[in-house]
Amino acid sequence: MPELPEVEITARRLGAAVGGVAVESALAPGINVLRTFDPPLEALEGRTLSGVRRRGKHLVVETDGGPSILLHLMSAGRLQLFDKRAGPRDRTSRLLLRLVDGRELRLREFGTKQAAWAKVLAPEAVDADEAIATLGPEAWPDPPPFEELLTEPRPLHSLLRDQRTIAGIGRSWVDEILWTAQLSPFKRADDLLPLEAQRLREATVERLGAAIEHYEEVVRLPIPDKLPMPLLVHRHEGRPCPRCGTTLEAVHYEDYVMSYCPADQTEGRILKDRRLSRLLK
Question: What is the tens place of the pLDDT at every residue in 5-61?
């Protein structure tokens, strides 16, 4: 799933590339992609794109004085710019903005769920939309102090992924952040000591910022289908910990994996794998 660093580099690259270019036509081949009807998609036609910005894991494609498009890529979506327009055999495009210079901005989705969505909104309605208005503060570049932000009696792995608490972190980067901070994914937020909360905030800013710097160096247009994520821990179970050499472990859930270092994060304890737990019931 694209998270804050991946969405940030997408916004930067696309915003720089399409600013000042007018929309020739707008199409929605994905019948489930649009969640609004007023303004209509056609209201984008003839408008000049002014940029692309990020809020949490959302993208906002803006025009000069006209409607904006609020997008969520969900788990398998990508917003990409191509020099040529999609052909009749294209099966991945959910939304197409055809530009007057012949290029095409496409919301593409891989897989069968078709969960990515888009809303065409008046500019003043974007930040007031429920999807944006309910988001917590940004996880990067300057989140509030974590001892004030993370106060619920919930495991850190769950709370850090809650977009209402802090926006932008998902399943990949939460593993990296907790490993960097040397904290157990199951440690309750309300049990954090002040120094641990400070360490966690620093790890969040450090890892997300480093990922964005990495993407600035290696990502060019068109945005690749799979970004070269600089992950050290997530989905690296069975490999040695980059810090201490202990074998990395993982807990497998129905639709995601939580990876960690037992020596650095759980005092040597191997956490119960949920797949085995279900088999033993």
Answer: 999 999 999 999 999 999 999 999 988 899 999 999 999 999 999 999 999 999 999
CA distance 105 to 108: 9
Question: Measuring CA to CA, which residue among 51, 218, 31, 56 is closest to residue 118?
Answer: 31
Alpha carbon distance 26, 46 (integer Å):
10
Reading the block at residue 77, the tokens are 């979506």
Assigned token pair, 281: 């019931």
Peptide linkage before 39 cis (omega within 30 of 0):
yes
Q: Structure pTM?
A: 0.94
Please, what's the b/e burial string for 225-247 (b: 16 or more CB within 10 A of its CB; e: otherwise)?
eebebebbbbbbbeeebeeeeee
Instruction: With a cut of 60, say whether residue 277 has pLDDT above it.
Output: no
pLDDT digits (tens, 9 = 90+) for 52-68: 999 999 999 999 989 99
Give Cβ neighbours of residue 222 (< 8 Å, ≥ 6 apart): 80, 81, 82
Residues in the chain: 281
Distance CA 172, CA 52 (A): 24
Q: How far apart are CA 262 and CA 264, in angstroms?
A: 6
User: What is the spatial distance between Cα 33 and Cα 37, in angstroms, rounded to a whole number?
Assistant: 11
Alpha carbons 98 and 85: distance in angstroms, whole number: 7
Cβ(235)–Cβ(257) below 8 Å: yes
Backbone angles phi, psi at 264, to 5 degrees: -90, -20
Residue whose pair of structure tokens reads 């998902």 in the numeric block? 170
In the chain, the amino acid numbered 190 is D
Asked if residue 222 has a cis previous peptide bond (ω within 30° of 0), the answer is yes
Partnered with residue 98 across adjacent β-strands are 25, 104
